[in-house]
Amino acid sequence: MFFDGFNTVVYGVLFGMIAGMMVFITLKELLPTAHKYDTSDTIVTPFIFVGMAVMGGSLLLFDYT
User: Fold this and answer.
1) d(CA 61, CA 56)
2) How far apart are CA 48 and CA 44, in angstroms?
3) Which pLDDT tens digit goes with each residue over 35-64?
4) CB-based contacts of 14: which residues, under 8 Å, 6+ apart?
């Protein structure tokens, strides 16, 4: 039997699992560590929102091109 690659369902499941792992690592490890080093919370929280805006803007660019 010739293996032709994965179908779209397999790609969707794998990408969903990887995205979930990345979100878990960010929420469980990276953000608490960042807040530990920025005790006055002057940098971490504003740049969380800046990062969200950049990601949202890049998704809009991919959608309309």
Assistant:
1) 9
2) 6
3) 999 999 999 999 999 999 999 999 898 876
4) 6
Residue 34's Cβ-side half-sphere holds a number of Cα atoms within 13 Å equal to: 15
Q: Which two tokens stand for residue 6?
A: 């994965």
Contact predicate 44/31, CB 8 Å: yes
Under 8 Å between Cβ of 35 and 41? yes
Q: Would you say the C-alpha torsion 15, 62, 59, 32 has a positive or negative sign? A: positive
Contact 31, 48 (CB under 8 A): yes
Look-up: residue for tokens 């699992």?
Answer: 17
Whole-prediction pTM: 0.66
Per domain, the residue ranges of the chain are 8-64
Spatial distance between the Cα atoms of 25 and 30, rounded to a whole number of angstroms: 7
